[in-house]
Design goal:
The structure holds 2 protein chains of 2 kinds.
Chain A lengths: L5 E6 L3 H13 L2 E6 L2 H11 L3 E5 L7 H9 L6 E6 L3 H9 L4 E5 L3 H20 L5 E4 L2 E4 L4 E4 L2 E3 L3 H12 L4 E3 H8 L8 H15 L9 E4 L3 E4 L4
Parallel strand pairs in A: 1-2, 1-3, 3-4, 4-5
Antiparallel strand pairs in A: 6-7, 7-8, 8-9, 10-12, 11-12
Chain B lengths: L1 H25 L5 H19 L1 H19 L12 H49 L3 H16 L4 E5 L8 E2 L7 H12 L14 E5 L7 E6 L9 H67 L6 H33 L7 E3 L1 H11 L9 E4 L7 E3 L1 H18 L6 E8 L4 E8 L33 H11 L4 E5 L5 E8 L6 H12 L1
Parallel strand pairs in B: 6-8
Antiparallel strand pairs in B: 1-2, 1-4, 3-4, 5-7, 8-9, 9-11, 10-11
Classes of the chains: A alpha/beta, B alpha+beta.
């Protein structure tokens, strides 16, 4: 990176949260900038061109979902949305509208930094243009060229849909992928909403990949939102 | 009615005719004076069977026929022996007296019987009224019995207690506009005290027994009461009085119930306030203390201590957050505003998400899961069920030693169409007398591992609310070998045919 610091824009109307984010992000070496409303936020995105946007879904002037949609019309800058528990629907909508990840308030710095790192990784790998041909997590190896999945050296037999699901999760490794997104990728857009299919396959995939499907280490469920392939520990 | 009485007279004459026939047959062998007895017998029969009127007619006709057929010269009313005139007079007098006496006895017997009948009706009516739980039931019971009594359609209304006079509420059936007008009339005439029921009455007000004679409701007869005799009307009046009493009693007990509920919710509110203020303050005290500790730390700050305090703040904040979440859920459960996104959920995913939530706190414990591979998916809201399991696990943290193991188990019972999920610990267990109560609000078991039981005692109540909203059950039992097992059930999902979904997939592969 030529830039010395990564620029973060926080769009949030609550002053204490902005202050706390400013403190932690600055101390973590980020370049911090803030906006208190959706309008101001969008202007700042245009003028300051931040590397990552942290967006509160409950803004006073406009819906965070609307902000996400409008931003996605012209910028691929990673967006992490903040929302409260019980607003899973809003989160899913924001994610489906193009947000990269979400955090449920209240959240810790560790979580925030992890999400931010992952979101940033996306823009960096895509700008580098390199794609890995082999992906590893735990004792599982996925060879995209041979379309082969092995666990502890032994080949696993995945059905085409299981393979597509796994490939999608790997593509968005460490990021949450919504139910609809996974359905679109594995089955096609006409299957959106048929989350029960997805659950059958995810359960299946977990049994093949995880040591204990009830305490998964990699294929993590985000209740009410989707799934996350947890690779970095 | 008229036909019926005419027939009685015809029967009376037929009996007299029969007596005449017998008298004619016996005439050659008996003195005519003795044959008078046959006619007197006929009069007795007529008066017992058909009452006073026919008996009098039978008496007069008997004398005439006796003269005509049995006294010489036959077949004329003329009398040859004048002493028969005395016989006729005596016969007529005796017949009339007999018919009067017998008819009186008969009337009395009839009255007694009818009285007994009405009494038994009244008795069964009041007994049923006593079992009526509310005004709707009372009006239905009243309608049924009054219909039975008068043999015509009747409706019973009660005024709604809040408005009293004027606003009559329908409690039974549907009413024609005329009936409603009649009721309105009853309500208007309301102030003149006790109603006098006559055969022209079409609506009877039901009035309270107190001095104000408050109007409680009305009994309406769309077809009037023209066909009822005085006896029935009197019984009807006692029916209406009974209805009034029952209505007053029900109102009183309803008022009592309301007062009781109010006291109870008052109590709930105050215990909620006290427990919440305690539970909010405890973590807040820790947070404030730890935060100020960091703030006040001098320049030679001990980084390790600071981090410890910060992690204390972090954990207590999370606890506060859970508490607030639970309080919100509680109000949502209670107001019925808990909106549930029911979706098929694999059981291992449900259990896994709860384990993942507590991954840090569970580090020191052995966490086992027993989920059979063939466990079907269940129907539920992922977020709410995670909350439910979080509450159960949080309880385990509170009441068991920090290294005691936890077991999650799923039991599939196809027969009952549900999956039971168990969360078991090796803690002190739940005392028998608390097993039912633990799911009530603000009930907390005395914790042995910590000196004070923390938490608002809401966790399990919310669990119950969530499970019930899913149509399941929740409970707690002793675990074999020590500890407690909390269990709940969720309905099996049938919308997914797993095999079908997988079948399509393998077809693609081939």
């Amino acid at each position: 990176m030529s830039k010395s610091k990564i620029a973060v824009l926080v769009i949030e109307d609550e002053a204490p949260i902005r202050r706390f984010l400013k403190m932690t992000l600055t101390s973590q070496g980020y370049d911090f900038s803030e906006a208190v409303s959706g309008q101001e936020g969008m202007l700042k995105v245009a003028s300051e061109k931040p590397d990552i946007i942290i967006l509160d879904l409950g803004l006073p002037d406009m819906d965070g979902l609307e902000v996400t949609k409008q931003l996605r019309e012209w910028t691929p800058t990673p967006i992490i949305v903040l929302s409260a528990r019980g607003q899973e629907k809003d989160k899913v909508e924001a994610l489906d509208a193009g947000a990269d990840d979400y955090l449920t308030k209240p959240f810790g710095v560790a979580e925030l930094m992890a999400r931010a790192r992952v979101a940033l990784r996306r823009t960096m790998t895509s700008s580098n243009g390199e794609t890995q041909s082999v992906f590893k997590f735990g004792d599982v190896e996925v060879d995209f060229v041979k379309r082969q999945v092995t666990k502890a050296g032994k080949e696993l037999h995945l059905t085409p849909i299981e393979y597509k699901l796994l490939a999608t999760l790997i593509k968005y490794a460490d990021r949450v992928v919504t139910h609809n997104h996974l359905l679109r990728e594995a089955w096609g857009s006409e299957y959106s909403g048929e989350t029960h299919y997805l659950r059958v396959y995810m359960a299946q995939l977990r049994r093949k990949l995880e040591k204990n499907p009830a305490q998964p280490k990699y294929l993590i469920t985000e209740p009410g939102v989707g799934y996350r392939l947890k690779v970095s520990q | 009615m008229k036909n019926h009485s005419r027939i009685r007279y015809v029967y009376a004459l037929m009996i007299v005719g029969g007596a005449t026939l017998i008298a004619r047959i016996l005439l050659p062998y008996f003195a005519p004076a003795n044959l008078v007895m046959i006619y007197l017998l006929a009069v007795v029969i007529v008066s017992t069977k058909f009452g006073r009127g026919p008996a009098v007619v039978a008496s007069v006709v008997s004398v005439c026929i006796f003269d005509f057929f049995c006294i010489e010269p036959f077949l004329t009313f003329a009398v040859s022996d004048s002493q028969y005139v005395v016989t006729f007079l005596a016969m007529l007098t005796t017949a009339l007296v007999i018919s009067n006496l017998t008819a009186a006895a008969r009337d009395q017997a009839e009255r007694a019987m009818s009285k007994e009948h009405q009494t038994s009706l009244l008795y069964s009516f009041s007994r049923e009224l006593a079992s009526g739980p509310d005004l709707t039931a009372l009006s239905e019971i009243g309608r049924k019995h009054i219909c039975q009594l008068v043999g015509k359609k009747a409706e019973v209304f009660f005024c709604s207690p809040a408005t009293g006079n004027g606003d009559t509420q329908e409690h039974a059936g549907s009413f024609s506009p005329e009936a409603k007008i009649l009721i309105a009339k009853v309500v208007e005439d309301g102030s003149n005290g006790r109603a006098v029921i006559t055969s022209s009455t079409k609506a009877i007000p039901i009035r309270g027994s107190s001095s104000t004679k408050e109007l409680l409701g009305a009994v309406v007869f769309e077809e009037g009461l023209g066909h009822c005799d005085g006896e029935k009307l009197a019984t009807l009046e006692s029916f209406v009085n009974q209805l009034a009493l029952a209505c007053e009693r029900t109102r009183l007990s309803e008022e009592n119930e309301q007062a009781r509920v109010q006291v109870k919710s008052e109590k709930l509110r105050s215990s909620l306030l006290s427990s919440i203020s305690h539970d909010l303050r405890t973590p807040l005290a820790t947070i404030t203390g730890a935060a100020s500790g960091i703030m006040e730390a001098g320049d030679d700050v001990n980084l390790k201590e600071c981090k410890e305090m910060a992690s204390e703040i972090f954990n207590e904040s999370r606890r506060l957050n859970r508490l607030v979440g639970n309080l919100l859920d509680m109000t949502r459960v209670e107001s019925g505003a808990l909106d549930i996104h029911k979706e098929p959920q694999p059981v291992d995913e449900i259990i896994g998400s709860a384990i993942a939530y507590f991954s840090d706190q569970l580090a020191g414990r052995s966490v086992e899961t027993e989920i059979p591979d063939d466990t079907p998916m269940v129907i539920g809201d992922a977020v709410l069920i995670q909350q439910l399991l979080i509450n159960l696990v949080e309880n385990i943290f509170k009441y068991t030693p920090p290294d005691s193991p936890i077991l999650f188990r799923a039991i599939n019972s196809d027969a009952e169409d549900l999956v039971t999920i168990e969360v078991s610990d090796r803690g002190p267990g739940i005392p028998e007398d608390l097993k039912k109560q633990v799911f009530q609000k603000f009930v907390r078991a005395k914790s042995k591992s910590t000196t004070t039981a923390s938490g608002a005692g809401l966790g399990l109540a919310i669990c119950q609310g969530i499970v019930e909203a899913h149509g399941g059950k929740i409970g707690v039992k002793d675990r074999e070998g020590g500890g407690a097992t909390f269990w709940f059930t969720l309905p099996i999902d049938h919308s997914v045919d797993g095999n079908k979904a997988l079948g399509e997939d393998s077809a693609v592969e081939a």
